[in-house]
Design a protein that fits this description.
Layout: E1 3-7, E2 10-19, E3 24-26, E4 29-30, H1 32-42, E5 46-49, E6 53-60
Antiparallel strand pairs: 1-2, 2-6, 3-4, 5-6
Length: about 80
Amino acid sequence: MKQLYHHGGSAYLIYDRVLIEKFNIDSNLLDMNKVRAVRDFLGADHVLKDQTHFLFCETIQDVEWEEVEPNTDDVVI
């Protein structure tokens, strides 16, 4: 089941969660090239990070809509 994640007023569809330690070069350095490679492989457009994982996500775009008033001449009963 896919998860939704809300962050900073935006919604994201999580493709995968990967432990941060999988991207460690050493204890204080991350290999961000590997992070980008996983992002691209998964087709994600955004990467978030929590305390233990990178979250590879798709940004859910806000829907633009316009309210339409019904035309009473078009109503069929």
